[in-house]
Design a protein that fits this description.
- The protein has helices spanning 6-17, 22-29, 33-53, 57-79, 88-98, 104-111, 115-127, 131-149, 156-165, 172-182, 191-197, 257-271, 285-288, 290-298, 315-327, 337-353; strands at residues 218-228, 231-240, 245-252, 278-281, 302-305.
- α9 crosses α10 (172-182).
- It is rod-shaped, with a radius of gyration of 36 Å.
- The termini are far apart.
- A five-stranded mixed sheet has the order 3-2-1-4-5, sandwiched between helices.
- A hairpin with a 4-residue loop joins β2 (231-240) and β3.
- With 366 residues, the protein is α/β, with parallel strands linked by helices.
- The longest helix has 23 residues, at 57-79.
């Protein structure tokens, strides 16, 4: 068989591609018919390959997005015990755990779930206060941490940006709503007003004078939190300085105005103090809220505030929470939330009735 040079093959193909009939080309060149059509087939395959290799900027970005999407789907399926062939209930549960970590379209594609079905499932859980409530509590805790870590300067927009940098998908509207509920206000928004009101509205009547002459003369209060099973629980307590007795306490899942107000209501109903009572707290938004301020004024209680960033102004509460955590909370493995709540009840009974207090010449508060 005769060997043809590359140039000869290309010249024959060019004649055919220019419109010349193959019969004329074959008669003129004497090339076997099978060889000629073999050249044509190879030429067309080469042209198709070249077309596939041609990528413009738009196609490049589409391919990038497609690869990222497929990589996310692979990660989702690798991290889950569920597959696209599992029962719908299992797929919905698995998808729900990843909501907020991945794009909803990607999650639904990975588990082969119609987006409408998934959104209905999420909204149903939101109404039932299950997964949605848990996610809100996790956000509350991290928002409080970011707010405190940055000297109470960051507002909703900056906290949202920090959360997104940490991979937490949320919105400024959600963060703003939670901050409002928690009583958190960036000090930048009202720095001048706070400065002007420092000595007028938020006076420190106590000034670290923790000795009193009678019961119900001065109460001090604060909120601490304790993590159990991945969830944060906030403990608000009120102590009467005269006997160092815990006169009211409550455990809540949010560090809100409602928590501190309801704790004060419990103590007030139990002790029925006169109008000379001083109620001393820190400057947390939950204690400074309008709701709390109106309630305290209605009881004719004088509200005293610690100075900003001076924990010693409320050292009695700091000492109490220090003791409770190290004598009980940090030493015990709780079996359930009910077990944890019962332990707090029992510790405060112990603290009030059986634990000698150095400040009281080793008598108990009771």
């Amino acid at each position: 068989m005769k060997n043809y040079a590359k140039e000869e093959k290309q010249a024959v193909i060019d004649r055919f591609m220019s419109g010349e009939p193959s019969v004329n080309i074959l008669a003129d060149t004497g090339i076997p018919k099978s060889t000629f059509y073999g050249w044509l087939r190879a030429y067309h395959e080469e042209q198709e390959a070249d077309k596939r290799k041609t990528v413009n900027i738009r196609n490049f970005h589409l391919l990038e997005n497609k690869v990222a999407r497929l990589e996310s789907i692979i990660k989702i399926l690798k991290s889950s015990t569920c597959t696209a062939k599992s029962p719908l209930k299992q797929r919905l549960y698995a998808a729900e755990q990843l909501y907020g970590k991945y794009n909803v379209h990607v999650i639904c594609d990975a588990f082969d779930i119609p987006r409408g079905t998934f959104y209905n499932h999420v909204l149903r859980n939101k109404r039932d206060n299950t997964w949605y409530a848990k996610r809100r509590e996790e956000l509350r805790l991290r928002i409080q941490e970011i707010f405190d870590e940055n000297n109470q300067i960051f507002g909703a927009a900056k906290i949202t940006a920090v959360l997104k940098n940490e991979g937490v998908k949320t919105s400024k509207k959600m963060v703003s709503s939670l901050m409002r509920d928690m009583g958190l206000v960036s000090i930048r928004q009202s720095a001048k007003k706070l400065y002007e009101d420092e000595g007028r509205e938020h006076k420190n009547y106590l000034n670290q004078e923790f000795d009193t002459n009678k019961p119900n003369e001065v109460w001090v209060s604060d909120v601490t939190y304790f993590k159990y099973n991945g969830n944060a629980y906030y403990i608000c307590a009120i102590i009467d300085l005269f006997s160092r007795m815990v006169v009211g306490y409550k455990i809540g899942k949010t560090n809100s105005t409602q928590l501190v107000k309801s704790t004060l209501q419990i103590a007030y109903r139990e002790r029925q103090p006169d109008s000379n009572l001083i109620f001393h707290t820190d400057r947390g938004g939950n204690y400074r809220s309008k709701t709390m301020n109106d309630y305290i004024q209605s009881l004719r209680i004088t509200h005293s505030f610690s100075r900003s960033y001076v924990p010693y102004d409320n050292s009695v509460m700091e000492s109490f929470f220090f003791s409770m955590k190290r004598e009980e909370l940090y030493r015990t493995k709780y079996r359930s939330e009910a077990d944890f709540r019962k332990a707090v009840d029992q510790y405060i009974i112990f603290y009030n009735t059986k634990r000698p207090h150095r400040k009281l010449q080793y008598k108990t508060p009771a």
